[in-house]
């Protein structure tokens, strides 16, 4: 198969992503776009939105790291490149980046090539280098196959835009073996997402072992995770393997990792770094092959700043990140979920209820669901028992009747702010004909902020 040159690629519309991080990288990105005007560019400022922005034809990604280097720069680069493993990455770096051995080690391991700035010195050479990268990416896609179609996620019901994005991320993240951090409010189904990643991965035939870090007493946590030998402590009457050992060859799910005491965080960090541990009471190291998936309802970045969560452990765990949407942002999915859970209850409980009244459906949509899916399951299960006919009513669900005139109440300030925020974003998008840059200017915020708000409120733009 012939090699593609920079001049040959001019006749083809290549789709590529440009990831910018600061003002200096924006200048570099503009220079690249000027040199290759015949390419179709997607400029991305929000790293967390990266996995969802690339269209199916995008083959190449250009990462322009921040000018300032720190201890997190190498891990940040690794996180970004692994979040979109289907892209062929090219790093655009400065001379000071090249002098940092740890940073360049990650570039060498995750990127196809790198180009040094200033780009003015490479005006003639750059199109050929990037054209060859595009040609190689196309060759790889032809021989190895393009991105897989999103897999169906068992036990997860819903077709709203946030859930569709979630399904795509699960499919992407299942292809690689990097750690995944699942974020979301309590009751949103984070463990179901972890199980879906496991089932769609190459480790599907191996075990899936879950550990609730917040439910195990601190003095027993190390024994639960890594096991113990006979006589290690009072009550240790025989050798016992820990959860990490039981997960060998599969996935270890660390639920509520944010509740892990600082004293145990360093032991988890060592396990992640070296892949081995010692059972309590034993000097012998045990090595296992596991993939780590963690979950939390806490803001771990805030916890790092508050020094209640180790920064190095955060970056080790947060290589890939998935945010599970709260139930109140899932629109019509609420009705589908309620019907699904009612059908499950009917297989286990003798009940006449087989559907929801129109008022009950309206009440379900209006309620804010602070307990998310877990609360919905609870209310539907109770309603199936309480219902006196075939239709479940708002009273059976312990929800206000939507036909009754609401009494005067104090408006929840957070709810009011979120509604106003969503409305402002939607108005700005409509006024700008859904141009993100223009919408950002209208609102007086950055493109990065717009992308965060789109994700937060489940707003999808074509």
Q: In words, what does this structure look like?
A:
By secondary structure, the chain is α/β, with parallel strands linked by helices. The protein folds into 4 domains: 8-144, Response regulator (Rossmann fold); 161-325, P-loop containing nucleotide triphosphate hydrolases (Rossmann fold, 3-Layer(aba) Sandwich); 328-392, Helicase, Ruva Protein, domain 3; 413-457. 44% of the residues lie in helices and 13% in strands. The chain contains 19 helices and 16 strands. It has helices spanning 23-35, 50-53, 73-83, 95-98, 101-110, 126-144, 161-174, 190-200, 218-226, 243-246, 262-274, 300-305, 311-317, 333-348, 358-366, 372-386, 413-431, 436-443, 447-457, and strands at 15-19, 40-44, 60-63, 88-93, 113-116, 180-183, 208-212, 227-228, 240-241, 251-255, 276-278, 285-287, 291-296, 320-323, 355-356, 391-392. The strands form 5 sheets. The protein has a 5-stranded parallel β-sheet with strand order 2-1-3-4-5, with helices on both faces. Helix 11 (262-274) crosses helix 13 (311-317). The radius of gyration is 25 Å and the shape is globular. The model is unreliable at 1-12 and 144-152 (pLDDT under 50).
